[in-house]
What we know:
In chain A, 41% of the residues lie in helices and 13% in strands. By secondary structure, chain A is α/β, with parallel strands linked by helices. Chain A has two domains: 4-10 and 258-385, Aspartate Aminotransferase, domain 1, CATH 3.90.1150; 16-254, Type I PLP-dependent aspartate aminotransferase-like (Major domain) (Aspartate Aminotransferase, domain 2, 3-Layer(aba) Sandwich), CATH 3.40.640.10.
Amino acid sequence: MKIIYMDHNATTPLDAEILEAMMPYLTNKFGNPSSSTHAYGWEARRAVDEARSQVAELIGAHPEEIVFTSGATEADNLAIKGVAHAYRDRGNHIITSQIEHKAVLETCKFLEKEGFKVTYLPVDRYGMVDPEKVRGTITDRTILISIMFVNSEVGTIEPVEKIGEIAREKGVLFHSDAVQGAGKIETKVDKLKTDLLAISGHKMYGPKGIGALYLKKGVKIEPLLHGGGHERGLRAGTENVPGIVGLGKACQKAGRVMDEEAERLTKLRNRLYQGIMNRIKRVYLNGHPEKRLPGNLNLSFEFVEGESLILSVKNFAISSGSACTSSSLESSYVLLAMQVPEALSHCSLRICLGRSNTEEEVDYLIEELSKNVARLREMSPLYKEV
Amino acid sequence: MWLDFGRCPPCIKRCSMYNLEEYSAKVMEHYQNPRNVGEIVDPSGEGTVGNPACGDVMKLTIKVDNGRIVDAKFKTFGCGAAIATSSMVTEMVKGKTIEEALKITNKTVAEALDGLPKIKMHCSVLAEDALRAAIEDFRKKTAGQEKNAQNN
Protein backbone atom coordinates (compact mmCIF):
# COMPACT_ATOMS: atom_id res chain seq x y z
CA MET A 1 0.00 0.00 0.00
CA LYS A 2 1.13 3.50 -0.78
CA ILE A 3 2.12 5.48 2.28
CA ILE A 4 0.11 8.68 2.57
CA TYR A 5 2.47 11.63 2.74
CA MET A 6 1.59 14.17 5.46
CA ASP A 7 4.99 15.66 6.23
CA HIS A 8 4.94 18.65 3.88
CA ASN A 9 6.87 20.88 6.30
CA ALA A 10 9.85 18.54 5.90
CA THR A 11 9.74 18.54 2.14
CA THR A 12 7.25 18.47 -0.72
CA PRO A 13 7.18 16.30 -3.83
CA LEU A 14 8.47 17.88 -7.01
CA ASP A 15 5.54 19.16 -9.07
CA ALA A 16 5.30 17.48 -12.49
CA GLU A 17 4.96 20.86 -14.25
CA ILE A 18 8.11 22.06 -12.55
CA LEU A 19 10.06 18.96 -13.47
CA GLU A 20 8.96 19.46 -17.04
CA ALA A 21 10.23 23.03 -17.01
CA MET A 22 13.56 21.86 -15.58
CA MET A 23 14.11 18.94 -17.95
CA PRO A 24 15.60 20.88 -20.89
CA TYR A 25 18.20 22.35 -18.54
CA LEU A 26 19.16 18.87 -17.32
CA THR A 27 19.54 17.69 -20.92
CA ASN A 28 20.17 19.68 -24.08
CA LYS A 29 20.12 23.20 -22.65
CA PHE A 30 23.20 22.60 -20.59
CA GLY A 31 24.96 25.91 -21.18
CA ASN A 32 26.83 27.91 -18.58
CA PRO A 33 25.15 31.28 -18.04
CA SER A 34 28.62 32.83 -17.87
CA SER A 35 29.40 31.74 -21.45
CA SER A 36 28.75 35.05 -23.14
CA THR A 37 30.16 34.05 -26.50
CA HIS A 38 27.58 31.52 -27.69
CA ALA A 39 23.90 30.59 -27.77
CA TYR A 40 24.25 27.82 -25.14
CA GLY A 41 25.31 30.41 -22.61
CA TRP A 42 22.71 32.93 -23.73
CA GLU A 43 19.74 30.59 -23.31
CA ALA A 44 20.97 29.55 -19.86
CA ARG A 45 21.39 33.21 -18.89
CA ARG A 46 17.87 34.00 -20.10
CA ALA A 47 16.49 31.07 -18.06
CA VAL A 48 18.25 32.29 -14.91
CA ASP A 49 17.03 35.84 -15.48
CA GLU A 50 13.47 34.69 -15.98
CA ALA A 51 13.58 32.60 -12.81
CA ARG A 52 14.97 35.56 -10.88
CA SER A 53 11.96 37.61 -11.96
CA GLN A 54 9.59 34.83 -10.97
CA VAL A 55 11.11 34.56 -7.50
CA ALA A 56 11.11 38.34 -7.10
CA GLU A 57 7.47 38.54 -8.09
CA LEU A 58 6.32 36.02 -5.49
CA ILE A 59 7.84 38.02 -2.65
CA GLY A 60 7.30 41.50 -4.13
CA ALA A 61 10.97 42.27 -4.68
CA HIS A 62 13.07 43.53 -7.61
CA PRO A 63 14.88 40.80 -9.57
CA GLU A 64 18.26 42.33 -8.75
CA GLU A 65 17.49 41.84 -5.05
CA ILE A 66 17.49 38.04 -5.41
CA VAL A 67 20.62 35.93 -4.80
CA PHE A 68 20.36 32.22 -5.64
CA THR A 69 21.88 29.83 -3.12
CA SER A 70 22.07 26.07 -2.59
CA GLY A 71 19.09 26.22 -0.25
CA ALA A 72 17.68 28.07 2.71
CA THR A 73 20.46 26.95 5.04
CA GLU A 74 22.97 28.72 2.83
CA ALA A 75 20.64 31.71 2.48
CA ASP A 76 20.35 32.00 6.28
CA ASN A 77 24.12 31.64 6.66
CA LEU A 78 24.75 34.23 3.98
CA ALA A 79 22.28 36.66 5.54
CA ILE A 80 23.49 36.37 9.12
CA LYS A 81 27.23 35.93 8.66
CA GLY A 82 27.11 38.28 5.69
CA VAL A 83 25.54 41.12 7.68
CA ALA A 84 27.59 40.39 10.82
CA HIS A 85 30.84 40.59 8.88
CA ALA A 86 29.85 43.58 6.78
CA TYR A 87 28.61 45.65 9.72
CA ARG A 88 30.96 44.56 12.49
CA ASP A 89 32.36 48.10 12.72
CA ARG A 90 28.87 49.28 13.73
CA GLY A 91 28.24 46.73 16.44
CA ASN A 92 28.35 43.10 17.51
CA HIS A 93 24.88 42.34 18.80
CA ILE A 94 22.34 40.04 17.09
CA ILE A 95 18.79 39.31 18.22
CA THR A 96 17.03 36.06 17.33
CA SER A 97 14.59 33.65 18.98
CA GLN A 98 14.90 30.28 20.68
CA ILE A 99 12.66 28.55 18.13
CA GLU A 100 14.51 29.41 14.92
CA HIS A 101 15.61 26.75 12.48
CA LYS A 102 19.04 25.30 13.25
CA ALA A 103 20.38 27.11 10.18
CA VAL A 104 19.86 30.34 12.11
CA LEU A 105 20.62 29.11 15.63
CA GLU A 106 23.85 27.33 14.76
CA THR A 107 25.02 30.24 12.62
CA CYS A 108 24.46 32.57 15.57
CA LYS A 109 26.31 30.18 17.89
CA PHE A 110 29.20 30.16 15.44
CA LEU A 111 29.29 33.95 15.43
CA GLU A 112 29.38 33.96 19.23
CA LYS A 113 32.73 32.20 18.93
CA GLU A 114 33.91 35.16 16.84
CA GLY A 115 32.93 37.54 19.63
CA PHE A 116 29.41 38.50 18.56
CA LYS A 117 26.80 38.73 21.30
CA VAL A 118 23.51 36.98 20.56
CA THR A 119 20.18 37.34 22.38
CA TYR A 120 17.95 34.28 21.96
CA LEU A 121 14.49 35.61 22.80
CA PRO A 122 12.02 33.29 24.53
CA VAL A 123 8.55 32.70 23.09
CA ASP A 124 5.12 32.45 24.69
CA ARG A 125 3.16 29.19 25.03
CA TYR A 126 1.94 29.50 21.45
CA GLY A 127 5.48 29.83 20.11
CA MET A 128 5.07 33.56 19.48
CA VAL A 129 7.87 36.11 19.76
CA ASP A 130 6.83 39.31 21.53
CA PRO A 131 7.78 42.31 19.33
CA GLU A 132 8.07 44.49 22.43
CA LYS A 133 10.70 42.12 23.79
CA VAL A 134 12.59 42.62 20.55
CA ARG A 135 12.36 46.38 21.04
CA GLY A 136 13.51 46.11 24.63
CA THR A 137 16.56 44.08 23.64
CA ILE A 138 17.86 46.42 20.94
CA THR A 139 20.97 48.34 21.98
CA ASP A 140 23.16 50.75 20.05
CA ARG A 141 25.40 47.75 19.31
CA THR A 142 22.59 45.75 17.63
CA ILE A 143 23.25 45.16 13.93
CA LEU A 144 20.76 42.43 13.04
CA ILE A 145 17.43 40.92 14.07
CA SER A 146 16.60 37.47 12.68
CA ILE A 147 13.11 36.12 13.37
CA MET A 148 11.47 33.39 11.32
CA PHE A 149 8.20 33.99 9.48
CA VAL A 150 6.56 30.64 10.22
CA ASN A 151 7.79 27.98 12.62
CA SER A 152 8.27 24.67 10.85
CA GLU A 153 7.29 22.46 13.78
CA VAL A 154 4.29 24.14 15.34
CA GLY A 155 3.24 26.31 12.39
CA THR A 156 3.01 29.54 14.38
CA ILE A 157 3.07 32.66 12.20
CA GLU A 158 5.31 35.19 13.90
CA PRO A 159 4.46 38.91 14.11
CA VAL A 160 7.17 39.66 11.58
CA GLU A 161 5.46 42.81 10.34
CA LYS A 162 5.56 44.42 13.79
CA ILE A 163 9.14 43.33 14.36
CA GLY A 164 10.06 44.78 10.96
CA GLU A 165 8.48 48.08 11.93
CA ILE A 166 10.48 48.20 15.15
CA ALA A 167 13.67 47.28 13.29
CA ARG A 168 13.12 50.13 10.81
CA GLU A 169 12.30 52.58 13.53
CA LYS A 170 15.53 51.66 15.33
CA GLY A 171 17.61 51.45 12.18
CA VAL A 172 18.53 47.78 12.64
CA LEU A 173 18.63 45.29 9.74
CA PHE A 174 15.97 42.59 9.81
CA HIS A 175 16.27 39.09 8.35
CA SER A 176 13.51 36.51 8.24
CA ASP A 177 13.74 32.81 7.47
CA ALA A 178 10.54 32.50 5.44
CA VAL A 179 11.04 28.93 4.25
CA GLN A 180 7.73 27.66 5.65
CA GLY A 181 5.70 30.70 4.64
CA ALA A 182 6.83 31.52 1.12
CA GLY A 183 4.60 29.87 -1.46
CA LYS A 184 2.08 28.82 1.17
CA ILE A 185 0.82 32.14 2.50
CA GLU A 186 1.36 35.69 1.27
CA THR A 187 5.01 36.60 1.79
CA LYS A 188 5.73 40.14 0.59
CA VAL A 189 8.93 41.81 1.69
CA ASP A 190 7.49 45.32 1.75
CA LYS A 191 4.59 44.24 3.92
CA LEU A 192 6.77 42.16 6.23
CA LYS A 193 9.34 44.98 6.27
CA THR A 194 12.31 42.67 6.05
CA ASP A 195 15.71 43.64 4.67
CA LEU A 196 16.71 40.04 4.07
CA LEU A 197 14.57 36.93 3.60
CA ALA A 198 15.42 33.29 2.95
CA ILE A 199 13.35 30.86 0.87
CA SER A 200 13.74 27.28 -0.29
CA GLY A 201 12.66 25.40 -3.42
CA HIS A 202 11.76 22.02 -2.00
CA LYS A 203 9.27 23.35 0.54
CA MET A 204 7.07 24.65 -2.29
CA TYR A 205 6.99 21.69 -4.68
CA GLY A 206 10.26 22.69 -6.33
CA PRO A 207 13.56 20.79 -6.36
CA LYS A 208 15.97 20.30 -3.46
CA GLY A 209 19.36 21.99 -3.50
CA ILE A 210 18.10 25.43 -4.45
CA GLY A 211 17.07 28.46 -2.45
CA ALA A 212 17.32 32.19 -2.55
CA LEU A 213 18.13 35.15 -0.38
CA TYR A 214 16.29 38.42 -0.81
CA LEU A 215 18.64 41.28 -0.15
CA LYS A 216 17.10 44.74 -0.09
CA LYS A 217 18.83 47.27 -2.29
CA GLY A 218 21.52 49.05 -0.30
CA VAL A 219 22.07 46.31 2.28
CA LYS A 220 25.69 45.16 2.33
CA ILE A 221 26.76 41.59 2.99
CA GLU A 222 30.10 39.86 3.01
CA PRO A 223 29.91 36.78 0.74
CA LEU A 224 30.55 33.26 2.07
CA LEU A 225 31.92 31.96 -1.21
CA HIS A 226 34.56 33.78 -3.23
CA GLY A 227 35.28 33.03 -6.85
CA GLY A 228 34.14 34.01 -10.29
CA GLY A 229 31.85 36.88 -9.36
CA HIS A 230 28.54 35.11 -9.91
CA GLU A 231 25.36 36.56 -8.39
CA ARG A 232 26.89 40.06 -8.34
CA GLY A 233 29.86 38.71 -6.44
CA LEU A 234 27.70 37.65 -3.52
CA ARG A 235 27.66 33.93 -4.26
CA ALA A 236 30.41 32.56 -6.44
CA GLY A 237 29.95 29.28 -8.29
CA THR A 238 28.41 28.32 -11.62
CA GLU A 239 24.66 28.68 -11.32
CA ASN A 240 22.54 25.58 -10.68
CA VAL A 241 20.50 26.34 -13.79
CA PRO A 242 17.98 23.46 -13.59
CA GLY A 243 17.47 24.16 -9.88
CA ILE A 244 17.08 27.88 -10.46
CA VAL A 245 14.56 27.26 -13.26
CA GLY A 246 12.70 24.89 -10.89
CA LEU A 247 12.64 27.45 -8.08
CA GLY A 248 11.38 30.12 -10.47
CA LYS A 249 8.60 27.87 -11.74
CA ALA A 250 7.73 26.80 -8.19
CA CYS A 251 7.37 30.46 -7.19
CA GLN A 252 5.29 31.20 -10.24
CA LYS A 253 2.94 28.29 -9.63
CA ALA A 254 2.72 28.98 -5.90
CA GLY A 255 1.69 32.53 -6.65
CA ARG A 256 -1.06 31.20 -8.87
CA VAL A 257 -2.53 28.51 -6.58
CA MET A 258 -1.54 29.72 -3.12
CA ASP A 259 -4.70 31.52 -1.99
CA GLU A 260 -7.05 28.79 -3.03
CA GLU A 261 -4.77 26.08 -1.67
CA ALA A 262 -4.34 27.86 1.67
CA GLU A 263 -8.11 28.01 2.06
CA ARG A 264 -8.50 24.34 1.16
CA LEU A 265 -5.71 23.26 3.50
CA THR A 266 -7.08 25.32 6.38
CA LYS A 267 -10.44 23.55 6.01
CA LEU A 268 -8.76 20.17 5.72
CA ARG A 269 -6.57 20.84 8.74
CA ASN A 270 -9.59 21.97 10.77
CA ARG A 271 -11.47 18.84 9.77
CA LEU A 272 -8.56 16.76 11.01
CA TYR A 273 -8.28 18.73 14.24
CA GLN A 274 -12.01 18.61 14.97
CA GLY A 275 -12.17 14.93 14.10
CA ILE A 276 -9.35 14.10 16.47
CA MET A 277 -10.70 16.28 19.29
CA ASN A 278 -14.16 14.72 18.95
CA ARG A 279 -12.85 11.18 19.02
CA ILE A 280 -9.89 11.30 21.38
CA LYS A 281 -9.68 12.77 24.87
CA ARG A 282 -6.72 14.56 26.38
CA VAL A 283 -5.15 15.84 23.22
CA TYR A 284 -3.38 19.20 23.33
CA LEU A 285 -2.69 21.59 20.46
CA ASN A 286 0.87 22.85 20.20
CA GLY A 287 1.25 26.23 18.56
CA HIS A 288 -1.19 29.05 17.93
CA PRO A 289 -4.88 28.19 17.42
CA GLU A 290 -5.39 30.80 14.67
CA LYS A 291 -2.09 32.32 13.63
CA ARG A 292 -0.76 29.13 12.12
CA LEU A 293 0.24 27.76 8.76
CA PRO A 294 -2.77 26.32 6.85
CA GLY A 295 -1.66 22.67 6.61
CA ASN A 296 0.12 22.35 9.95
CA LEU A 297 -1.18 20.51 12.98
CA ASN A 298 0.97 19.69 16.01
CA LEU A 299 -0.69 17.73 18.78
CA SER A 300 0.32 15.99 22.00
CA PHE A 301 -1.57 12.81 22.82
CA GLU A 302 -1.18 12.49 26.57
CA PHE A 303 0.07 9.09 27.83
CA VAL A 304 1.21 7.98 24.37
CA GLU A 305 4.81 8.31 23.25
CA GLY A 306 5.18 9.92 19.82
CA GLU A 307 7.38 7.35 18.13
CA SER A 308 5.19 4.44 19.14
CA LEU A 309 2.16 6.30 17.81
CA ILE A 310 3.90 6.94 14.50
CA LEU A 311 4.82 3.26 14.23
CA SER A 312 1.20 2.35 14.80
CA VAL A 313 -0.15 4.53 11.98
CA LYS A 314 2.37 3.13 9.56
CA ASN A 315 0.37 3.97 6.45
CA PHE A 316 1.10 7.64 7.06
CA ALA A 317 4.32 9.58 6.71
CA ILE A 318 4.27 11.95 9.69
CA SER A 319 6.79 13.12 12.28
CA SER A 320 7.10 13.77 15.99
CA GLY A 321 8.85 16.13 18.37
CA SER A 322 9.54 13.19 20.63
CA ALA A 323 13.12 12.63 21.65
CA CYS A 324 12.79 9.06 20.52
CA THR A 325 12.44 10.03 16.88
CA SER A 326 15.36 12.42 16.89
CA SER A 327 18.90 11.34 16.38
CA SER A 328 20.01 13.29 19.45
CA LEU A 329 17.44 11.70 21.79
CA GLU A 330 16.35 15.12 22.95
CA SER A 331 12.84 16.45 22.76
CA SER A 332 12.03 19.20 20.31
CA TYR A 333 13.70 22.42 21.46
CA VAL A 334 10.77 24.32 19.97
CA LEU A 335 8.23 22.58 22.22
CA LEU A 336 10.51 23.00 25.23
CA ALA A 337 10.94 26.73 24.49
CA MET A 338 7.14 26.98 24.45
CA GLN A 339 7.14 25.49 27.97
CA VAL A 340 5.32 22.37 26.84
CA PRO A 341 5.95 19.95 29.75
CA GLU A 342 8.77 17.58 28.88
CA ALA A 343 6.48 14.58 29.33
CA LEU A 344 4.01 15.97 26.79
CA SER A 345 6.78 16.90 24.38
CA HIS A 346 7.44 13.16 23.97
CA CYS A 347 3.80 12.69 23.02
CA SER A 348 3.76 15.10 20.11
CA LEU A 349 2.84 14.42 16.53
CA ARG A 350 3.37 16.80 13.61
CA ILE A 351 1.03 16.47 10.67
CA CYS A 352 1.59 18.72 7.67
CA LEU A 353 -0.98 18.52 4.94
CA GLY A 354 -0.21 19.52 1.38
CA ARG A 355 -1.49 19.63 -2.18
CA SER A 356 -1.96 15.87 -2.51
CA ASN A 357 -4.01 15.32 0.65
CA THR A 358 -7.76 14.71 0.54
CA GLU A 359 -10.70 14.55 2.95
CA GLU A 360 -10.73 10.75 2.66
CA GLU A 361 -7.09 10.59 3.75
CA VAL A 362 -7.75 12.90 6.67
CA ASP A 363 -10.74 10.82 7.78
CA TYR A 364 -8.67 7.66 7.50
CA LEU A 365 -5.99 9.21 9.72
CA ILE A 366 -8.59 10.21 12.33
CA GLU A 367 -9.83 6.61 12.34
CA GLU A 368 -6.34 5.11 12.67
CA LEU A 369 -5.28 7.56 15.36
CA SER A 370 -8.31 7.02 17.54
CA LYS A 371 -7.92 3.25 17.29
CA ASN A 372 -4.21 3.25 18.06
CA VAL A 373 -4.21 5.93 20.74
CA ALA A 374 -6.78 3.83 22.61
CA ARG A 375 -4.64 0.71 22.18
CA LEU A 376 -1.43 2.40 23.32
CA ARG A 377 -3.15 4.05 26.28
CA GLU A 378 -4.38 0.65 27.40
CA MET A 379 -0.74 -0.33 27.41
CA SER A 380 0.45 2.82 29.19
CA PRO A 381 1.16 2.60 32.95
CA LEU A 382 0.48 6.35 33.17
CA TYR A 383 -3.03 6.18 31.84
CA LYS A 384 -6.08 5.86 34.02
CA GLU A 385 -9.58 6.23 32.66
CA VAL A 386 -10.69 9.77 33.50
CA MET B 1 -2.48 11.40 35.84
CA TRP B 2 1.19 12.12 35.39
CA LEU B 3 3.25 10.84 38.22
CA ASP B 4 5.69 13.42 39.40
CA PHE B 5 9.02 12.09 38.26
CA GLY B 6 10.56 15.51 37.77
CA ARG B 7 12.59 16.43 34.73
CA CYS B 8 14.49 14.12 32.48
CA PRO B 9 18.07 13.95 33.71
CA PRO B 10 20.53 14.83 30.97
CA CYS B 11 21.75 11.26 30.96
CA ILE B 12 21.13 10.19 27.40
CA LYS B 13 22.66 12.75 25.11
CA ARG B 14 24.22 10.93 22.26
CA CYS B 15 24.41 11.68 18.61
CA SER B 16 24.19 9.28 15.77
CA MET B 17 21.90 8.89 12.82
CA TYR B 18 18.94 6.63 13.26
CA ASN B 19 15.65 6.03 11.56
CA LEU B 20 12.68 3.82 12.16
CA GLU B 21 13.65 1.57 9.27
CA GLU B 22 16.44 0.18 11.44
CA TYR B 23 14.04 -1.76 13.65
CA SER B 24 14.31 -5.51 13.06
CA ALA B 25 11.27 -7.48 11.91
CA LYS B 26 11.13 -9.08 15.33
CA VAL B 27 11.05 -5.72 17.11
CA MET B 28 8.21 -4.63 14.85
CA GLU B 29 6.37 -7.88 15.41
CA HIS B 30 6.57 -7.52 19.19
CA TYR B 31 5.64 -3.86 18.94
CA GLN B 32 2.56 -4.69 16.87
CA ASN B 33 1.53 -7.76 18.86
CA PRO B 34 2.95 -7.25 22.31
CA ARG B 35 2.73 -10.27 24.61
CA ASN B 36 1.48 -10.13 28.20
CA VAL B 37 0.13 -6.61 28.31
CA GLY B 38 -1.59 -5.73 31.55
CA GLU B 39 -1.16 -5.99 35.28
CA ILE B 40 -1.31 -9.08 37.45
CA VAL B 41 -3.83 -8.66 40.23
CA ASP B 42 -2.16 -9.25 43.57
CA PRO B 43 1.33 -9.80 42.10
CA SER B 44 4.23 -11.43 43.94
CA GLY B 45 6.40 -8.51 42.90
CA GLU B 46 6.13 -5.32 40.91
CA GLY B 47 8.56 -2.76 39.60
CA THR B 48 7.98 0.63 37.96
CA VAL B 49 10.98 2.30 36.37
CA GLY B 50 11.67 5.17 33.98
CA ASN B 51 10.45 8.73 33.81
CA PRO B 52 7.74 10.33 31.65
CA ALA B 53 9.99 13.36 31.20
CA CYS B 54 12.51 11.04 29.53
CA GLY B 55 9.79 9.52 27.41
CA ASP B 56 9.61 6.03 28.90
CA VAL B 57 8.05 4.32 31.91
CA MET B 58 7.61 0.59 32.41
CA LYS B 59 5.60 -1.26 35.03
CA LEU B 60 6.27 -4.98 35.37
CA THR B 61 4.28 -7.34 37.61
CA ILE B 62 5.32 -10.94 38.25
CA LYS B 63 3.71 -13.96 39.86
CA VAL B 64 6.15 -16.31 41.61
CA ASP B 65 5.26 -19.83 42.61
CA ASN B 66 7.72 -22.16 44.28
CA GLY B 67 10.68 -19.96 43.36
CA ARG B 68 9.66 -19.87 39.73
CA ILE B 69 8.16 -16.96 37.78
CA VAL B 70 4.91 -18.39 36.47
CA ASP B 71 3.44 -15.20 35.02
CA ALA B 72 4.59 -11.72 34.01
CA LYS B 73 2.70 -8.74 32.63
CA PHE B 74 3.77 -5.27 31.60
CA LYS B 75 2.50 -1.80 30.89
CA THR B 76 4.82 0.57 29.06
CA PHE B 77 4.77 4.18 27.97
CA GLY B 78 7.56 4.55 25.48
CA CYS B 79 8.86 4.19 21.96
CA GLY B 80 8.69 1.09 19.76
CA ALA B 81 11.90 -0.30 21.23
CA ALA B 82 10.65 0.18 24.79
CA ILE B 83 7.40 -1.67 24.03
CA ALA B 84 9.11 -4.49 22.14
CA THR B 85 11.73 -5.07 24.86
CA SER B 86 9.00 -5.00 27.52
CA SER B 87 7.07 -7.64 25.62
CA MET B 88 10.18 -9.76 25.08
CA VAL B 89 11.31 -9.66 28.70
CA THR B 90 7.91 -10.94 29.90
CA GLU B 91 8.28 -13.88 27.50
CA MET B 92 11.82 -14.58 28.65
CA VAL B 93 11.16 -14.64 32.38
CA LYS B 94 8.18 -16.96 32.32
CA GLY B 95 9.12 -20.39 33.68
CA LYS B 96 12.50 -19.20 34.98
CA THR B 97 13.63 -19.37 38.60
CA ILE B 98 14.49 -16.06 40.25
CA GLU B 99 18.21 -16.85 39.91
CA GLU B 100 17.83 -17.63 36.22
CA ALA B 101 15.75 -14.50 35.66
CA LEU B 102 18.43 -12.35 37.25
CA LYS B 103 20.83 -13.46 34.50
CA ILE B 104 18.68 -11.66 31.93
CA THR B 105 20.27 -8.37 30.91
CA ASN B 106 19.31 -5.64 28.48
CA LYS B 107 21.75 -7.20 26.02
CA THR B 108 20.14 -10.63 26.09
CA VAL B 109 16.71 -9.03 25.61
CA ALA B 110 17.99 -7.00 22.67
CA GLU B 111 19.65 -10.10 21.19
CA ALA B 112 16.38 -12.03 21.47
CA LEU B 113 14.82 -9.28 19.34
CA ASP B 114 17.55 -9.65 16.68
CA GLY B 115 19.20 -6.50 17.97
CA LEU B 116 18.22 -2.87 18.38
CA PRO B 117 19.51 0.25 16.66
CA LYS B 118 22.56 1.38 18.65
CA ILE B 119 20.93 4.58 19.80
CA LYS B 120 17.99 2.56 21.14
CA MET B 121 20.01 0.24 23.38
CA HIS B 122 19.23 2.40 26.40
CA CYS B 123 15.53 1.56 25.93
CA SER B 124 16.29 -2.08 26.68
CA VAL B 125 17.81 -1.05 30.01
CA LEU B 126 14.26 -0.17 31.03
CA ALA B 127 13.24 -3.84 30.73
CA GLU B 128 16.22 -5.03 32.74
CA ASP B 129 15.66 -2.41 35.44
CA ALA B 130 11.95 -3.23 35.69
CA LEU B 131 12.73 -6.92 36.07
CA ARG B 132 15.27 -6.26 38.82
CA ALA B 133 12.88 -3.91 40.59
CA ALA B 134 10.07 -6.47 40.46
CA ILE B 135 12.35 -9.21 41.82
CA GLU B 136 13.62 -6.93 44.55
CA ASP B 137 10.03 -6.12 45.48
CA PHE B 138 9.21 -9.82 45.56
CA ARG B 139 12.20 -10.51 47.80
CA LYS B 140 11.25 -7.70 50.16
CA LYS B 141 7.72 -9.00 50.42
CA THR B 142 8.84 -12.55 51.05
CA ALA B 143 11.87 -11.79 53.23
CA GLY B 144 9.90 -12.45 56.39
CA GLN B 145 8.37 -15.62 55.01
CA GLU B 146 11.72 -16.95 53.85
CA LYS B 147 13.14 -16.47 57.31
CA ASN B 148 10.14 -18.20 58.77
CA ALA B 149 10.57 -21.03 56.34
CA GLN B 150 14.25 -21.39 57.29
CA ASN B 151 13.41 -21.35 60.98
CA ASN B 152 10.94 -24.15 60.52
